[in-house]
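Researcher: Dear colleague, please comment on this protein.
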Amino acid sequence: MKRILVLVLVCCLWGSVSRATDDAAPWARVANRFSVEGDGGWDLLTVDEAGGRVFLSHGTVVQAVDEKTGKLLGTIGGMDRVHGIALAPDLKLGFATSGADNMVVIFDTGSLAVITKLPVDGTSPDAILYDPATKRVFAFNGHSNNATVIDAKTRAIAGSVALPGKPELAVADGRGGVFVNLEDTSMVCAIDAKAMKVKTAWSLAPGKEPTGLAIDAKNHRLFSACNNGFMVVLDSESGKVVATVPIGERVDGAAFDPALKRAYAPCGTGSLTVIQETNANTFSVLENTPTQIGARTIAIDTRTHHLFQPTAEYGEAPAPTAENAHPRPPIKPGTFVLLDVEARTK
């Protein structure tokens, strides 16, 4: 009997230790740092979940990287200051914004060959998304306050949408609704993708200067990452602010994992804010995961629960001048990396 009691006690203690160890484990961690060739700047990225690839904007090219090994699988050129990449898996097409020459480059996601280039009806195309409900691509022009709409099937310009502010990142709800952050007016704009018209725009107060945007389509929740230290959670049907959650500084992206019910805010100061959705109206910060300075944009593979963030090391910033009061520090050659961040699933 004593031996049985001792065995039970040991098992109980081991269970307690195991639970304590699990509870102490980080909610996310940098699992890999993949070195990627090239020394240009970077911006947005996206994940090809079916193909296991990450598409990176990197200076004048888009790079396709294997998300498990970090191997460079191919490069798509012919661009100038790439910003955003959108994929249309059903059409096996990719779309990338070339900001300096005001073009959208369409490429084959299999061969990575450029199919055509379309001039936008605006200036500085930046964020871009594919709406599967209408099979349209929306390229958001940051310096002309409008979106160029492309028919993905015909690869032709379908129209344009004037916006009441400077567009940043955008999401689609899968039902013909498109939402985009307006940075200068601190609002979220709702667009009818079929009609190609703005339906309404909602204030993000107390959030200011929103950049990253993610969506929980099932619960109709938008996650708008703002540059005054808040992620504002908005009802995508009514526009009501549901919650505000504190995040880090220099945010420029957002992601949501529907299976884990977690939102992420990547901060350029070197942290990733992990936010748990308890229910449609309750949200809390789980932790601020250390990443790397400059890792301000993000993409997620919702099947593997891995997140990806590009960054590099920086040198010393040059002295301010009359022409440039806030000069950027130079990127150190050969230091560009893709962070592979693994989310805790239990």
Observations:
- The two ends are 36 Å apart (CA to CA).
- Residues 39 and 334 are 6 Å apart (CA to CA).
- Confidence is low (pLDDT under 50) at residues 1-22.
